[in-house]
Amino acid sequence: MPKLEYFTPVDASLQTIWNVLLDRIEHPDRYLAGVESFSFPESEEDYAVREVIMQGMPLIERITIDERQGEVRYQLIDHPLFTGDVYNALIPPDESDPKAKPVVQFRMDWQPLNNEAEIVEAECRADLQESLEQAVKYVRDLAEHLEKQQA
After folding, report:
1. What domains are there in the chain, each with its CATH number?
2. Residue 54 three-state SS
3. pTM to 2 decimals?
């Protein structure tokens, strides 16, 4: 699957947005529709493995956090159809523009492993793009709401 991407400016502090991105890791049920259960079978200092059951199907991800780069990486593990990553990035505002806002960007880069995956990709691409856009907008809306509450 070629890269899917969506980004939007957010009217909130970098710290508030980053906290929302971290909360997405710990509580996928708050951010993803169809989550039935989730667990963290492995957690180390520099990564965690998360298993999410969505609509009866397991999704296992290795999650790494790079706070300096403002990025969270979700790498698929042992998926029957796809290999690849989803990135959640927090891009600081352009310092040369006093009106610039931070940007949240989600990028999905999954590659099909077989013919079945290619069919799924063709049938679901538009839905995946829409889901990606909704996820970014939800993070934006939540961060902006939290920022207003703190003011």
Report:
1. 4-150 (3.30.530.20)
2. strand
3. 0.92
